Amino acid sequence: MLNRKKLDPTDSPGAAFGRRLRMLRDERGWTQDDLAERMGYSGTHISAVETGRRSPTPHFSASADKAFGTGDQFEEQGRAVRQTALLEGFPEYVTHEAVAAEVRLFEVGIIPGLLQTPEYAAAIASGAVQRGAITTRQADERLTLLARRQASMERTPPPQIYAVLDESCIRRLVGGTKGMAAQLAHLIAFAQLPHTVVQIAPYDLGERRSFDLPVTLLTLADNRSHIAYSESAHQGRLERDMRFVHPMLTAYHQLQVEAMSQATSAAMIHEVRKGIL
Description:
Blueprint: H1 13-27, H2 32-39, H3 43-50, H4 58-68, H5 73-82, H6 90-97, E1 100-107, H7 118-130, H8 136-152, E2 160-166, H9 168-171, H10 176-191, E3 196-201, E4 215-220, E5 226-231, E6 236-239, H11 242-258, H12 262-276
Parallel strand pairs: 1-2, 2-3
Antiparallel strand pairs: 1-4, 4-5, 5-6
Helix pairs in contact: 2-3, 4-5, 7-8, 10-12
């Protein structure tokens, strides 16, 4: 009970669903296994939904309504969760990111979220709203979660953060010249922190670049195990099986060797910034 994860319903629709599920379960004095038996799921599944690591399916929501006698309230709340702008696997990834000892990032096209200024992040979200890709509510959800993720990086001791950015990340103008100049200045300052390494994978790396899509690798603090998170435009995937994670980790190390040094990378970022002012 002392190790219970605190749930903030304002974090996301999934957190609100999980908090209500736990609250009603506690009111009845049921354990997760008690509720699982009533709903036809496992206690582990109940725990994952309560903590936001797993989204409630329509069947899960309907089973919860039946178990608690709440009409279709969970079904309605579940629809809101499934309309989230967060990709599958990402909410669970965030729970691991918040306690990881090491974070390794590779990004194409945009600055990674953990390294974004609020103005840059807002411009990215606004663009998605203008294209009709997400709603204003979903944009707010993304920005709230990003702020929480960035705050979690300021813990003591801080995680070691390695970031390899494709050159396109620093050359794509986002948020106008003023906003982009501020973002690049922030990136240079971030690279100077004692627990960070920022490198640029230049265009002329060509076919030697290890990844074509964004990849994040975490080293967990408790047992030094590794997990990987990767995503496309419409799907996210969290991978724990070391048969798949280890080759990605090896490829990341190869990418770091092929990429520009941090000093040379910082010099390139500085030159790009001067060019847009």
